[in-house]
Amino acid sequence: MTGTVRMVRRARKGVGWRALAMTMSLLVMATWLEPSQSLPQGAPETVCDTMLPFHSGGSVLPQNSVSPFSVETSASTVGQGQTVRVDVTGVPEGLTFGGFMVQARNRNPPHQIVGQFSPARDGTVKLMNCENSVNNSATHSNAGAKPQVYLEWQSPVDFLGQVVFNATIAQSYSEFWVGVPSNPVQIVRRDLGAVPLPTAGPQPAFGSALPTTRAPYVPPNYVAPSAVAATADPFYNGCGVSKNCFGFPDGCVNTKTCTSVAAVTVRGDIYEFEIQSGRGNNAAYVAVGLSDDAKMGEDLTTECVPENGRVTMYSSYTSATPYAAVRTSVPQNSARLLNASLVDGVIYCRVARDPVTVVKGRTFDLRRQQYHLLVASGSSLKENSVGYHDIGRLPSGKAINLAEVQDLSGSSNLLVQLHGAFMIAAWIGTTSLGIIFARYFKQTWVGSQSCGKDQWFAWHRLLMVTTWSLTIAAYILIWVELKRAVWHAHSIIGLITVILCFLQPIGALFRPGPNDKKRPYFNWGHWLGGNLAHILGIVTIFFSVKLPKAELPEWMDWILVAFVVVHVLVHLIFSIGLCLNHWQITGMASERHLSQRANTFQMGEMSPHHQQHAMRNGMSMERKMDAPYGAMRKGLLGVYGVVLVLFVVVLILLVVLAPIEQFLGKS
């Protein structure tokens, strides 16, 4: 025991007093409860450093949920040598406890016990002498059930600064809480406006109900020693047993290696949320949201944000388009920060949230409704808001009753990924190649056919039917996933693209004959519809990069830009070749006409009518053979096809492996 106490005293140097209580809970168990009830004469002085009960064999650990008891003080500022009242009471009225122990400690290192307690007039309190000082701790004098206890504590005359009253409270043999804190109390010089103990009106008698006015307590942030950081992360203690835990990447709770993780513990009407970021990811915030559809938007969110050297908690209400987490929409008093720390870049906070919160007329009822947990973290902040969750985001796969402890897995993004992959294959791949065939290869592979059609038309039709099929399938998939209309630039332009794509083959069924007067109008309409759909399809893919649910990297824009440059450059080269073909064919027809005129009509001039007829005959003969530069066109088509496949493969991989940063990090 002596050696352990020395270890605890050394651990107290350089750590926050709240962290000290948790460290002591893992090191020592001292005795002051019997297996069935509290020690009738209170805690022994051997537990002054640990404040931990000792049960048979030391096998019973403290509760890690929010304590249903509170420690209140009658004043937040007191002068040196003055007295303040300290109340230990149950938060729900009528809740009783048996044993307790209370100390006042310096909020800053070395966290020594300070001040003295006064004997209780009704004899219900036993005073203890800890750290060679008199009456500086208090415990129970009997183990009977009690709804509250009030104590009188006198501040030291030689101390200036903040103190925190730290309590251990036992409700039963197996249920006790260690390190229940009060609000900080500032000790000042008596001539600097100290607030004395209120004397107006009678003091409450033992057993009377006391009001609970305790504000949320935020302990000081601290940097733990490296030895503490090297130990197993206690956050995961109780996951799947006493609390719901969920984080990303999916399955990280089992390996205790989450990039960001949240836990929910429910005790009665107390809903406690713990949130923690991972080590080394430079998180600017970590947050957990309650969502009824596992999608970003209209979610009640709890944010933990380091500000000015300490962790601050905010409540917010999210929107997906544009992405935002609005704090002004949510009553900030609907949640209370119980504990927080920032250790080696790891953000941690513990928050108690009200069972019912109303935001913009919408009720979040944690007792009666089921919710998906949505964990997110990011590396940037906005003014009065958090930034984009570029580190990661993952919703749980199912909505749960928060009070039912269970194993959680991440929501599948399969339909979204298939939607993106199909659209990229259609509008980057098959459409681009189909347009090339129709525009530049009508005079290539002349005389060769597939299924009774010229090669260019057979390939064009195959590629465009594939585009149509992939587009319709992708649109159905995203509707199945979303189950509702979501309007933003991506969805609106995408809908226009789908409509144009759907109409193209229908219009082709009513194509006039080659010699019909309406054929030119059809050709222009078909050309315009196809090219407009292609352009809008690519623009839609650009807008998808910014969608939160897609989780695509911002640098994907540059890959799309590179594709556009290559596609335009290939069109330019083919167009130049088409012009050269036209000039050469025209020149060859003219030369043939002159040769025929010299050989056949040397005795007279050919009439204009005969000249035109001969020209048409020459052009017709040229159309029966491949246009010039056929080898160049075929070679360029092969190179373009390979490059196009590479673009499609890379873009599809970015979609199906999103977020790609997490995938690369795991590999």
UniProtKB/TrEMBL annotation:
Keywords: Electron transport, Glycoprotein, Iron, Membrane, Signal, Transmembrane, Transmembrane helix, Transport. CDD domains: Cyt_b561_FRRS1_like (cd08760), DOMON_SDR_2_like (cd09628), Reeler (cd08544). It holds the Pfam family DOMON. GO terms for molecular function: transmembrane ascorbate ferrireductase activity. It is a multi-pass membrane protein. Residues 382-580 form the Cytochrome b561 domain. InterPro entries: Cyt_b561/ferric_Rdtase_TM, DOMON_domain, Ferric-chelate_Red/DefProt, Reeler_dom, Reeler_sf. It is found in: Membrane. SMART domains: B561 (SM00665), DoH (SM00664). Its main location: membrane. One of its GO terms (cellular component) is membrane. Residues 33-202 form the Reelin domain. Residues 1-38 form the signal peptide. Residues 258-378 form the DOMON domain. PROSITE patterns: CYTOCHROME_B561, DOMON, REELIN. The chain crosses the membrane at residues 418-441, 462-480, 486-510, 522-543, 555-580, 637-660. Its cofactor is heme b. Belongs to the FRRS1 family. This is Blast:Putative ferric-chelate reductase 1 homolog. It comes from Drosophila guanche (Fruit fly). The lineage of its organism: Eukaryota, Metazoa, Ecdysozoa, Arthropoda, Hexapoda.
